[in-house]
């Protein structure tokens, strides 16, 4: 059993996280319940930040809030001195509502609307990561209308395929994101913005993939970008003040994953950027990164209650939990793998292999296949590890299942940061066809 962060087995044989007994959490908040180990998030954030600081490099570490966006996590990111990456009006709204400093917000997205760009400009956010020609047109028009200047990065697809699952790769040439680095697109984009009176081209952005376990992909992408910088320096006298190398740093979901310490990625990036800047005799650009999963992924654990069981003799035993693809769609979406334990019986040795089924009306709603567990009973608590990234943020209301609650735990204290959705919340946006039919009208 691999325990992340502050997780441990307490004297009752229960899983404890952040000094709080998960069985007590279930009694108080119910299941499914997302539990975040705040100390572990702080540790990860500091590892990134301190490495840049120790190397004396100007940097921004922006939390990619798509991994898990809520007012509390945004505030925690601020407490830890992080910047913030948002990709929609909704994520931007959450950040502003949380009181996050707008000048440390970076706005991504491959189809930002007029309303979203206007919202970002009016809030005077730190920078917009421009993805395509349509966005350049919009930005020129809107900045002129509002007589406002804006810092931008241009996102490029460097054509580096990082070793990762195909469905979650965003850095290939055949990608919906960014300007191609090699077919003239990026030069067209630079020419369109370089002398615009309202747009300031701060630098270049790339993101090569997700759940990456080696530094090679980052090195290759950086080298390709620097080859272009050499050209741009001659042709436009332009060199980037900022190089944003994205996120994608891999974490340990299961024993098959062997991630690098986060500082190794940072050290390698710094080494390569320094070496190439020196070769070109240009000022060292600021290095920005935007980790999501590696900041919050292994800090999240989901607690479920085990309900029904089905035995298919000689084939498999299914254990059903009170959640599934409605609170964690990753296994159904891209066969993501997890480890799990019985949180109320940690000292019991696994003596059978079971498969964990969700409660949604989809046979693909399977959370874990072939999990070793002690023989489980109805009412036992299943703790699934490493669910902190792209879990709650992708939660949905399929089958009109209510989204779970989220608690932060630290130093023996639990704090509810997202309350459980209620049935009333579920119908909150519905408008009747026949008002007189409503239960409340009778
Ligand atoms: C542009 C960009 N930046 C950062 C991230 C965060 O990636 P990760 O959570 O793998 O660190 C993503 C994820 O898809 C992304 O698309």
TrEMBL record:
Entry keyword set: Amino-acid biosynthesis, Decarboxylase, Lyase, Lysine biosynthesis, Pyridoxal phosphate
Keyword Chloroplast: no
Entry coiled-coil feature ranges: none
CDD domains from the UniProt entry: PLPDE_III_DapDC (cd06828)
Top EC class for this record: lyase
Stretches assigned to the Orn/DAP/Arg decarboxylase 2 C-terminal domain: 33-388
Domain Orn/DAP/Arg decarboxylase 2 N-terminal stretches: 40-296
Entry EC number(s): 4.1.1.20
This protein's record includes keyword Lyase: yes
Chain positions found as N6-(pyridoxal phosphate)lysine: 66
Binding site for pyridoxal 5'-phosphate: 248, 290-293, 390
GO molecular function, one term: diaminopimelate decarboxylase activity
Pathway: Amino-acid biosynthesis; L-lysine biosynthesis via DAP pathway; L-lysine from DL-2,6-diaminopimelate: step 1/1
Binding site for substrate: 293, 330, 334, 362, 390
Protein family membership: Belongs to the Orn/Lys/Arg decarboxylase class-II family. LysA subfamily.
Function: Specifically catalyzes the decarboxylation of meso-diaminopimelate (meso-DAP) to L-lysine.
Subunit structure: Homodimer.
Protein name as catalogued: Diaminopimelate decarboxylase
């Amino acid at each position: 059993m691999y325990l992340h962060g502050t997780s441990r087995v307490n004297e009752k044989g229960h899983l404890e996280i952040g000094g709080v007994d998960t069985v007590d959490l279930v009694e108080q908040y119910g299941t499914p319940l997302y539990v975040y180990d705040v100390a572990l998030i702080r540790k990860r954030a500091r590892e990134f930040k301190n490495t840049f600081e120790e190397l004396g490099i100007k940097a921004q570490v922006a939390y990619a809030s798509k991994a898990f966006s809520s007012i509390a996590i945004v505030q925690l990111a601020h407490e830890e001195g992080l910047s913030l990456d948002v990709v929609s009006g909704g994520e931007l709204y959450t950040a502003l509502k949380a009181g996050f400093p707008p000048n440390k917000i970076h706005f991504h997205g491959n189809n930002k609307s007029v309303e979203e760009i206007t919202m970002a400009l009016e809030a005077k956010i730190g920078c917009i990561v421009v993805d395509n020609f349509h966005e350049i047109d919009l930005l020129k028009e809107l900045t002129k209308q509002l007589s406002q200047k804006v810092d931008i990065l241009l996102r490029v697809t460097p054509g580096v395929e990082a070793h990762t699952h195909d469905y979650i790769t965003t850095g290939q040439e055949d990608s919906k994101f960014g300007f191609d680095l090699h077919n003239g697109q990026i030069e067209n984009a630079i020419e369109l913005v370089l002398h615009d009176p309202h747009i300031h081209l701060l630098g270049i952005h790339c993101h090569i993939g997700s759940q990456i376990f080696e530094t090679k992909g980052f090195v290759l992408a950086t080298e390709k970008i620097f080859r272009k910088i050499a050209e741009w320096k001659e042709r436009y006298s332009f060199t980037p003040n900022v190089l944003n190398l994205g996120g994608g740093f891999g974490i340990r979901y299961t024993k098959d994953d062997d991630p690098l310490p986060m500082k190794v990625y940072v050290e390698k990036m710094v080494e390569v950027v320094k070496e190439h800047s020196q070769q070109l005799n240009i000022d060292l650009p600021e290095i920005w990164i935007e980790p999501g999963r590696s900041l919050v992924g292994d800090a999240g654990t989901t607690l479920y209650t085990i309900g029904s069981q089905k035995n298919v003799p000689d084939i498999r035993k299914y254990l059903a939990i009170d959640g599934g693809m409605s609170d964690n769609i990753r296994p159904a979406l891209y066969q993501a793998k997890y480890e799990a334990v019985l949180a109320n019986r940690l000292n019991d040795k696994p003596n059978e292999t079971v498969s964990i089924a969700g409660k949604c009306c989809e046979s693909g709603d399977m959370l874990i296949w072939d999990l070793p567990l002690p023989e489980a009973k109805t009412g036992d608590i299943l703790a699934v590890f490493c669910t902190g990234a792209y879990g709650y943020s992708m939660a949905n209301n399929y089958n009109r299942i209510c989204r779970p609650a989220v608690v932060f735990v630290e130093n023996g204290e639990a704090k509810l940061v997202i309350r459980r959705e209620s049935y009333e919340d579920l119908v909150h946006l519905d408008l009747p066809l026949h008002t007189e039919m409503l239960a409340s009208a009778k």
